[in-house]
Amino acid sequence: MARESSLRFGAQTDEITSLLRIINLVRTEEAVTRPEIGRLTGLGRGVVTQRVDAAIEAGFLEDGEFGQSSGGRAPRTLRFRSDQAHIIVCALGALHIRVGIASLDGTVTSQTHREWDIATGPAATLDTALGMIDELLADEPERPVWAVSVGVPGPVDFESGSPVAPPIMPGWNGFDIRRRFEQRFDAPVWVDNDVNLLTLAERQRRRDEPIDLIYCKVGSGIGAGLLSRGRLHRGANGAAGDIGHVRVRDSAEPCRCGKVGCLEAEAGGWALVRRANRAIEDGATGMLATQFAGGLAITPEAIAVAAMDGDALAISLVHHSAGLVGESIAALVNMFNPNVIVIGGSVSAAGEIFLAEVRRRVYELSLPLATRDLSLVRSVGDEKEPLRGGAQLAIEQLFDATFPRWFAEGRPTIVGVRAAA
User: Fold this and answer.
1) Spelled out in words, what is the top-level CATH class assigned to the domain 86-200+384-418?
2) Is the pTM here over 0.85, yes or no?
């Protein structure tokens, strides 16, 4: 960019600091005119003009339309140039791959999806995902890739970007996911648990309010994402919120993680499928049994639909799952004290049948003060949510966590982002 050398060698620390702040104020729309920037930063008019001109010359900002006048000449608004680069998002699920392209403001501009078993292994899975991304990029305007976000259905060491003993991802333990994408796109890559991506999407939906939130996904597996005053809480090693493997009292069901009695082994979607098949083999009748007799596989989605249609077996399975999930969430409520709980995932598609039982157990087992201002709702279930969340992950890491380290280069680089702060 035009000002790369002067930004790198000429600018003083305070100039860079104020320049970064101004860009972020415009990017987040906290201030969109020069007078607003002056009021929020305390900088003089001349300094604001100088910094804004530098940001425009560097390619981060541009002039927009004229704003409303407060009596004098109407000020010209400023816009963050969100179209200057792509963010790539790859959301891997237990049984699907979803990829998308987003702009720097988090807008998903294109996406595609295909069914895929994550147990196929990392090599074939990432080859397939990269091929899907290439197809999307071929139809997008030619722009540099500034960041890649990858979500996976298992525990992730966020610092290294590698899965750690993921129960449903054989062959992925310790695999360097980041490396494959860095080699392909020459851009920084962040890898996180898939529930954290959904949590970030929910945060963006509620961006006007500081929020303490638990996002609980009850799909094939079970996991939770935690927001504390709007900040994602990953814990010391990235394992925060992994409630799927807390112990259920008196349970001896084997879990895919190798232990017994885990919440996921009792209440996850794959566990409900196992329970449904057992019940049908023991003579249960109804909608699910008819589907099974007709050669249709029982899935978590099928159980949720059958429950909404009144199938007795499906309703009993959904209630069983919801009660146990509610107990585990109640423990989090007492410890974490959120003001919002969002329930997502295929099993939660049973709607109020599932939600009402979760709500009942949470309020029954939690402290009155912890539930005084608590709302418990179902997620919107939009298929773009993991892509939106992945874009938010990249934006947060680019402009909140690492911006000062790569700003002088004019664009994020792998080395610049990974360098010590």
Assistant:
1) alpha beta
2) yes
